[in-house]
Amino acid sequence: MEMRDIDDLPKNAANYMALTPLWFLERAATVHPTRKAVIHGSRTYTWLQTYQRCRRLASALSKRSIGVGSSVAIIAPNVPALYEAHFGIPMSGAVVNTINIRLNASTIAFLLGHSQSTIVIVDQEFFNLAEDALRIMKEKSQGNFTPPLVIVIADESCNPKTLKYALGQGAIEYEKFLESGDPDFAWKPPQDEWQSIALGYTSGTTASPKGVVLHHRGAYLMALSNPIIWEMNEGAVYLWTLPMFHCNGWCFPWTLAAVCGTNICLRQVTAKGVYSAIAKYRVTHFSGAAPPPSVLAGMSQKGFRVTHTYGLSETYGPSTVCAWKPEWDSLPPETQARLNARQGVRYVGLECLDVISTQTGQPVPADGKTIGEIVFRGNIVMKGYLKNPKANEETFANGWFHSGDLGVKNPDGYIEIKDRSKDIIISGGENISSVEVENSLYLHPAVMEASVVARADERWGESPCAFVTWKPGVDKSDEQRLAEDIMKFCRSKMPAYWVPNQ
Amino acid sequence: MEMRDIDDLPKNAANYMALTPLWFLERAATVHPTRKAVIHGSRTYTWLQTYQRCRRLASALSKRSIGVGSSVAIIAPNVPALYEAHFGIPMSGAVVNTINIRLNASTIAFLLGHSQSTIVIVDQEFFNLAEDALRIMKEKSQGNFTPPLVIVIADESCNPKTLKYALGQGAIEYEKFLESGDPDFAWKPPQDEWQSIALGYTSGTTASPKGVVLHHRGAYLMALSNPIIWEMNEGAVYLWTLPMFHCNGWCFPWTLAAVCGTNICLRQVTAKGVYSAIAKYRVTHFSGAAPPPSVLAGMSQKGFRVTHTYGLSETYGPSTVCAWKPEWDSLPPETQARLNARQGVRYVGLECLDVISTQTGQPVPADGKTIGEIVFRGNIVMKGYLKNPKANEETFANGWFHSGDLGVKNPDGYIEIKDRSKDIIISGGENISSVEVENSLYLHPAVMEASVVARADERWGESPCAFVTWKPGVDKSDEQRLAEDIMKFCRSKMPAYWVPNQ
Fold first, then answer.
1. Cβ of B274 under 8 Å from any chain A Cβ?
2. A295, A384, B101, B408: which is deepest, by most CB within 10 A?
C-alpha cells in the first residue's frame, strides 16, 4: 500500500532513541540520589553513588580500549561489583559476560576463550579458580596467549593474603580500578538498540556450552515487564538470592533501577541470611529456582506469595508466568498446587508463545494431552548463540525460538511442561547436561555403559542420577567403593553440582 | 568500529517483532477471558468479549477498505465503543482519530477534512454535532464532497428518536456494524513499529489545530511506563474520569490491557458517579487535570493519594512526574504542596528531559531561578504534526521537542513551569488558544482591542478572561449588557469552555 501522509513522518533526534536499560540508572540517580541502591553487609551505595561508580567503571574500561564489540567477563557471587557490571560494562559499549561461579576451571577457560574477553573481573573468593582457568588457556594456546587483565574484587570478607597474592600476580584491585575512572564520564548510549548488552553461557546437550547473546532492546523490555508480572512497585526492595550471573538475574538488575528500588546483596544464600535481610530491610521480593511442591506449600504457610514463572537464558530469563486467577482462591490446596505448577502464559513483554507439533510444526490443540514443543517468538528472545550458526539455524527454525521443552496446551490456554526434548537436568535452577556427565563417566576405566537422568530432589528440584554397567573383569565385590571412586572421578571432571550422587 | 562477532547476529522472525500495544489485548483475553474488562452502566464486557468485539470492529472496517494509511474518527464520551476504538481501529491497520466532544461543528469539520477520515463513529448524543460538521464540510467543498460513512453508537441512554433519525440519514448502528465483522478476524499487527496508531488534534497559538501523530512503538512504551509511575498492579480498576479522546486517555486504554485490569466507563463525570463507582467497583486509580492546591488538599484529607504528572499530547500525555520522596513525609503541608506542585522528573519511558536557554539552547543551571524552555527527547515523543512541515521543523529544532512551556530546573533536578511561551490557557485539562479567542473578539463590532489571559479557577484550574476596549461611539452606559452580548457572540464562534466569563 502507498505511503500516505499519516505515516510520512520520519524519525528524528528528538523522537527516536535506541532503547536501553542504561537510562534507568541515570534516572534513578536523578530522582532518588540519596536512596539506598545497593546494600551489602556493612556497605551501602546510594543511587547517585552507584551511578558514579558505574560511570567510573565505564571510564576505566574505556581507557583500557574496551568499547563496542568487546566482552568483559565477571566471575563473582552477588556482590555490588556484579550489580555495577550490568551497567558499567555496557556503558563503555561492551558486553557483560557473567560467569557461573560453580563452573570448573576448564569450562571457564573455554568460556573466556570463546567470548574473547580481554578483561576479567573476579571476586577474591574465586581468584584461584580464575588463575587455574587462565593457566589452562595458556597451556592450550601453544605459545599464542595474551593473558587478560584481571581485576580483583576484595570486600570485607577478603583474606588479605589472597589479595596480596592476586596483586602480586598483576591483578588490579576493583576499587583502585574504579578510582582510575571518571565519575562524570560521558558514557555513550548504544546507537542501535540491537547492539549486544550481555553474553551468558548455557549448558546444552553437547560438550561445548553455548553463548547466549542478549541486546539492549530486549533487556529494556524485560526490565519493564518484570514489575507488571511481579507486582513490583516504585521503591521495591529486592533480595538477591537468585545469582546475578544466572541469565543476568532475569534482568532484575535493570528492573531495580527502573523502579528506583533497593538491591540487597548476599555473598552466600543461607536461611539465616535470607530471614535476617527480610526482617532488617523489609524485603518485598526475591526469586529463585522453581521449588518442589512441598517447599511451595511450606512457603505459602509462612506468608510468602509465590509467582511461578518459566523461561530460559535464551528468553532473558522467565518469559512465561502461571498467572494466578482469583477463581482459584476457593479451590482445594492440591488443585491450586497442580494449577500453579504449570508454566502458564506469556509475559507481557513476549509477543507469542505456543506449543507446536514436532512433526507438522502446527500448534497442538488446547486439550491438555497432545504433546508438542514449547516455542517462543518476540522481542525478549535472544539475538542468537555466539559464533554458532548451526545452532542458530536449528533454534530459530520456522520463525520460532525452539525451547527444546515438550509440553501441552491446556484448555484454559496455560502451557505445561511434560518432558524435555533436550537431555537437560535442572538442579537449583542451573542446567546440567546429562550427555556431558555421561561422556565423563565413559572416561572412567571401570564403566562399560552409562546413562544419566534427572532424579527428583527435595532441595534442588532435580539432581543427576547415574546408572552404569561395569566392564568385564571389574571387581564388583564392593560396589559402594566403586561408586565412591566414580563420584571422586567425576569431581575432577565437572562442577560439583553436576556430580551424580547416591 | 568494526562489526565484531558479538554483534553479528541478525534479526529474524523469532526474535524481532514490531512493538505494539495491540498484543496486550490478545494476552488479556487469553489469560483472563472471563475477567471484566469494561463496565458501563448495566453493560459489562469480559476481556474475551472485548477482544472479539475489537476483532469484529477491525474486520468490519477492513471490509469497508479501511487499512494502513486510513484514519477513522470517533466522537464519543467515555463509552465502551471509544475503548474498543483504541484497539479495533489500529487492528485494521488504520489510525484512531479521537475528537474532543466539546469542540464546535466548524472545528470538527476542519478536523475531519484535515484527517481525511472516511468513516466517522459518533455517539448518539453528538450525532447532531457531527451532522452539522458534515454539512459545513459539504458547504465548503464546492461540490467535491464524498460524505464519510457514519456509525452511530446507541447505548441505553439513547433517545429512540435520535437513533431513528440517524439511521434515516444513512448512519449504521455501531452494534450492527460489529455484527458485520468476524470475531475471529486475523488482525494484522503492524509490520513496522513506527507505523501510526493515533491522531489527535491540539489547540495551538494559531487558528488551525495541529494533528499530533503517535506511533505503535510509543504507545507500547507509554502503556508499560504507566504502571510503574502510577503503581498500577495486575488487575487494577481504572475509573474513566479523564476523557479517552484527550491524548488517548494518556495511553491508559492500552495500559489497562497490559495489566489485565478493569475499565469503568462514565458517560458523564459527576461527583455522585465517581463516588458510586469507587464504592461499587473498588476503583484503584483515576486521572484528571491538575487541580488547584485547595482541591488537592481536600483530596488528600479524603484519603486519595495524588500523583502529579505533566505532559502534552505530543508526549503521549504525561511524561514527567513529581516523584514523591519519602523525606517529604515529615514536612509541613504547605511545603509538601509546594514541592508536589512541580512538574518533576522524566517518566521511566522518556529518555531525556531538560530546561534549555531560549537564547543559547544550552541547559540552564539547576538553580531554581534561570528560566528556559522545557524540552523532551525520547521514544514517547510524537512522530510529528500531520501535514505541517513548518511546525515540525520548529518543534523538533536542535534535537529536542520544544514544549513551549517556560520553567526552571531546581537544585534537586525537578523541573517547574513558570510561564508559557505559547499563549495557551489550560482549562479542565484542555488547551484554549488565547490568540484564537482574541481573534474572535476582534470580530465583534464593538471591540477595539482585546487581550485574553488565563485566570485562576477553583474548579477548572484556569479559565479564559478577556480585557477589551470599546470602539469610538459605542454606548458604554451599560457595560454589563455589552459583556453579555460579547459572551453570546463568542458562544456562536467557539466551544463553550473557550468563552471568557465574568
1. no
2. A384
